[in-house]
């Protein structure tokens, strides 16, 4: 993953300020339908625990977590912190990509509360004009025909996004967004196209997650799906994340950390 700056000197001060802000927000909170999630900051299991210890007595409806890097085993580490320390719904930040979302989906078979996550569906469509191919876990295509070589974006898991020169992309999918674009050709050059692409991308993420949810009880089938969806190197990282979660839940976090200490990613 990318380099992360960790302000260890002021970390506790920031946590105390966060707890103070949560307390103040609760004093003026008057909408019972508004769900208040607190973000737990940190770069690994132990720093999450430090932060959580300071704000755990504040009233919240759930928590948000974000791994310090994109390696699947780091996402698994965040999941394990939630399993052993939290007792509320969890929202994982920035994990739309398959290599991260599949870890959270796998973890959902152990966690008794709802799990949600977000990612870059909106940015992919509106800002990058990138279109996620249906039933493809790691492939996106750029739909602007005039994209310059140096402007090509890196796709999910480091793969270069293919530039598409035609505008027949929407025949791939029959979701409501693609049907609208296909039936109103002028939308293909309209600013609203990015919004429709984002809705399509989100729809595809939901379909894929629903499919994964049906597989999590069958590890053999899930492993096969992972290996067929991403490159061999990334697949091994994802399967390592699964193993880390399984081992920790069976034997405890400390034993799992010792066993996988060489695979856990330094920040």
What does this structure look like?
- The protein is of the alpha/beta class and 267 residues long.
- Helix content is 48%, strand content 8%.
- It contains 10 helices and 7 strands.
- The strands form 2 sheets. The chain has a 4-stranded parallel beta sheet with strand order 1-2-3-4. The protein has a 3-stranded mixed beta sheet with strand order 5-6-7.
- The longest helix has 23 residues, at 193-215.
- It is globular and about 55 Å long.
- The protein starts with 10 loop residues before the first helix and ends in an 8-residue tail after the last helix.
Strand elements, count: 7
Low-pLDDT runs of 5+ residues are: 145-161
Mean of all residue-level pLDDT scores: 84
Shape: globular
Chain-wise SSE layout:
Elements: H1 11-28, E1 37-40, H2 45-55, E2 62-65, H3 72-85, E3 90-92, H4 98-107, E4 115-117, H5 121-126, E5 130-132, E6 140-142, E7 162-163, H6 176-183, H7 193-215, H8 219-229, H9 232-251, H10 253-259
Parallel strand pairs: 1-2, 2-3, 3-4, 6-7
Antiparallel strand pairs: 5-6
Helix pairs in contact: 1-2, 2-3, 3-4, 3-9, 4-9, 6-7, 8-9, 9-10
């Amino acid at each position: 993953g990318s380099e992360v700056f960790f302000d260890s000197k002021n970390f506790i001060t920031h946590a105390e300020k966060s707890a103070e802000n949560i307390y103040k927000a609760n004093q003026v909170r008057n909408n019972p339908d508004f769900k208040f999630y607190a973000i737990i900051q940190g770069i690994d299991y132990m720093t999450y625990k430090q932060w959580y210890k300071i704000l755990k007595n504040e009233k919240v409806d759930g928590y948000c977590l974000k791994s310090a890097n994109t390696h699947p085993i780091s996402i698994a580490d965040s999941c394990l912190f939630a399993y052993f320390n939290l007792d509320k719904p969890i929202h994982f930040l920035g994990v739309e990509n398959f290599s991260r979302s599949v870890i959270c989906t796998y973890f959902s078979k152990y966690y008794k509360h709802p799990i949600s996550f977000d990612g870059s569906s909106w940015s992919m469509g509106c800002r990058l004009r990138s279109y996620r191919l249906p039933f493809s876990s790691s492939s996106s295509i750029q739909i602007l025909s005039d994209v310059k070589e140096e402007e090509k974006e890196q796709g999910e898991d480091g793969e270069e996004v293919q530039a598409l020169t035609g505008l027949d992309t929407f025949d791939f999918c029959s979701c409501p967004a693609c049907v609208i674009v296909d039936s109103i050709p002028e939308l293909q050059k309209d600013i609203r196209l990015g919004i429709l692409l984002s809705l399509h991308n989100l729809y595809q993420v939901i379909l894929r997650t629903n499919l994964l949810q049906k597989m999590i009880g069958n590890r053999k089938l899930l492993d096969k799906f992972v290996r067929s969806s991403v490159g061999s190197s990334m697949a091994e990282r994802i399967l390592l994340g699964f193993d880390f979660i399984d081992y920790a839940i069976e034997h405890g976090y400390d034993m799992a950390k010792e066993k996988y200490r060489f695979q856990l990613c330094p920040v």
